[in-house]
Amino acid sequence: MALDSRAAGGVASAPQAAERRAHVTAVVGPPNSGKSTLFNRLTGLRQKVANFPGVTVEQRVGRAQLGSGREILLVDLPGIYSLDPHSEDERVTRDVLYGRMHDIARPDSILLVLDATNLGRHLVLAAPILSLGIPTLIILNMADDLRARGGSVDVEALSRQLGAPVALVSAATGENFETITRFLMSQPPAPIPVELPVLQDVPKCRAWAADIGSRACYRAPAPSVWTRRLDAVFLHPFWGPVVFGVVVVAVFQTIFSGARPLMEAAQRLVGVSGDFVANHLPESALRSLIVDGVWGGVGAVVVFLPQILLLFLFIGILEDSGYLARAALIADRTMAKIGLQGKSFIPLLSAYACAVPAILATRTIENKRDRIATILIAPFMTCSARLPVYTLVIAAFLPERPLLGPFLGTQAAAMLGLYLLGFLAAVATARILKSSVLKSERSPFVLEMPPYRRPTLRSLGLRLMDRAKVFLRRAGLVILPAAVILWCLAHFPFIDGKVPPIEQSLAGTLGRTVEPLIQPLGFNWKIGIGLITSLAAREVIVGTLGAIYGIEGDAHSTGLQRALQNDLTPAAAAALLVFFAFAMQCMSTLAVVRRETGSWRWPAMQFFYMGALAYLGALAANQGLGALLGK
Amino acid sequence: MVQLTFKSALSEKSESQSPRPHRSLKDLKRGEQGVIERIDLPERAARRLMELGFVPGAHVTAAHSAPGGGPTVYRVDGSEIALRKDTAGKILLSSERGHRAARK
Lengths: 631, 104
Hints:
The structure holds 2 protein chains of 2 kinds.
Chain A: H1 6-9, H2 15-20, E1 23-28, H3 35-43, E2 47-51, E3 58-63, E4 72-76, H4 88-97, E5 109-115, H5 119-122, H6 126-130, E6 136-141, H7 143-148, H8 155-162, E7 166-168, H9 177-185, H10 202-215, H11 225-234, H12 239-258, H13 260-280, H14 285-302, H15 305-321, H16 323-337, H17 345-350, H18 355-360, H19 368-377, H20 386-397, H21 410-435, E8 446-448, H22 457-491, H23 506-518, H24 525-533, H25 540-549, H26 558-567, H27 570-582, H28 587-597, H29 601-629
Parallel strand pairs in A: 1-4, 1-5, 5-6, 6-7
Antiparallel strand pairs in A: 2-3, 3-4
Helix pairs in contact in A: 11-12, 12-15, 13-14, 14-22, 15-22, 19-21, 20-21, 20-26, 20-27, 21-27, 23-24, 24-25, 27-29, 28-29
Chain B: E1 33-39, H1 43-51, E2 59-65, E3 72-76, E4 79-83, H2 85-88, E5 91-93
Antiparallel strand pairs in B: 1-2, 1-5, 2-3, 3-4
């Protein structure tokens, strides 16, 4: 999956093996050099996202569209400033380039992507890359920007100075991509050795880059007028925070109301297709498994896809345009108060939709301890999977009454309270973590402000495709097995050759087994089954309770509400809400935390910590409220 | 304002307000420019900052600050980099005085 050269990777030195395997080209460059845009233009849809073996860094591999029979594998490596790594991303890039990465052959050639409008700084990276002795094409990206802002560079002279070919291109418009294609199709020679500075000496390297630049008649462009103008608003002492607030509210609003019609459409699609399947299968256990188990279980999760894609569309626009860096800057001070930093802000905001993308979004945090702390608190944010549960329980137990005139009713207030509860738990946990196990000497907070750019449809589209694929694969690998297991538990063992009543099924037995444990919380064995099944994903409890009570499982179903009113005291209902606010009931999140932190240690800790908090919180809610209400 | 010259070897015109020898990036007001003398941080952190352009001798201009004393954006060598106050306070300026940035 990673590279086709995998088998030959270890013996790349053997000539026949080298001929057999595909030619591998690494795309290298500093962050914000337009590396990924270039990669996308060269590979289009023929790319895959995978993880580098053994580490949590994502790699993108694609086939270049060369128009000849020859196949080139392009690997998009994480952005680097030098070969002296500071973050895990950068370490991966260095290891791949040195040929030290297990399972990945040393690249046959390199595309070094530099920002032509910022050569003073970016050219420094040419020294360590050229010293590798791998055939390299130096790509000066953003040619259009350079010209528009009155800069220029002598490409021929630069090429002579560096001993390697140089191409001035624009990844956004595709300008001069022929040169890149020609380089990839030829058998490029290794760079001609030129005098390079001592790589450890940063000031020397910069002086070298400045010297090379001036010999190549590099004229830096005027600062981007648009960036200055937009920053005058976005970083304005008053308007900056206002815009920030508007952006946050807009993201929220989109996640909740904007996505609703799409989610309803998805729900209808799942329902209609489920009915279609049900009508075309003979009445049997298999039909029940497929319709109730697979369609019901997986469908309940797949309906969240539009919401998650909308969130990623938003984040994509914010990131590609350059606003995200400004948002992190504005949020930094607030985040610093809970021991985190500005870069944690976006993942935590995303976690209100779903913790899984949020945890993936923590990759931009260089400080490993800050990153783990952010990963650990993200699931406390009220994700969309909690909404069906909250909606059901609140509607069943809290009569709607106006609290603040027409603006806020009791039910909305309860919902807001639960959001606040999750947020407070996250803040408290962050403080505890950052003052104990994850205490870190404050590494300098460094955040580059890229110039504003217009996001391209192409890159946004590719991003959404990626995320949709990841999400659906997860639904297939986690939710599907969970749904099938749940169905089996509820349908076995057969009694007199028939499906047993739920009390006597395996699920019922399981529920009764945990009943003594959850009785202090005010829950009976039916809720117990719901809690067990909701370990797979929170929203599964709604469908489970529906199945147990033999009523249509739907958060708005009055039948289910009435059934709950019979089985739960108001205090126990509150306890159930508190339990869901705190508990880590999401296999996908645990799996992704495992993948991102590299061991089971953190997800296990997270699971037990959140579980204990949920249990104690629910216990306090049930006993406290119970005493208060006299029940 | 007093005209003071500290190091005659440096030829840049200087316009200074106070004779304190070691100002840091933190002391730069918005639009004000300074020249870096050294970075008072552990080697690793200093290297990262140098890779981003904060090398001794570089001219740095302070730009926007996040509201409420958050990080400040500095223009150095064609890029804009945000640093927190504690980091900026460790990047010391040479007493040779930078002039106010001419360009807006």
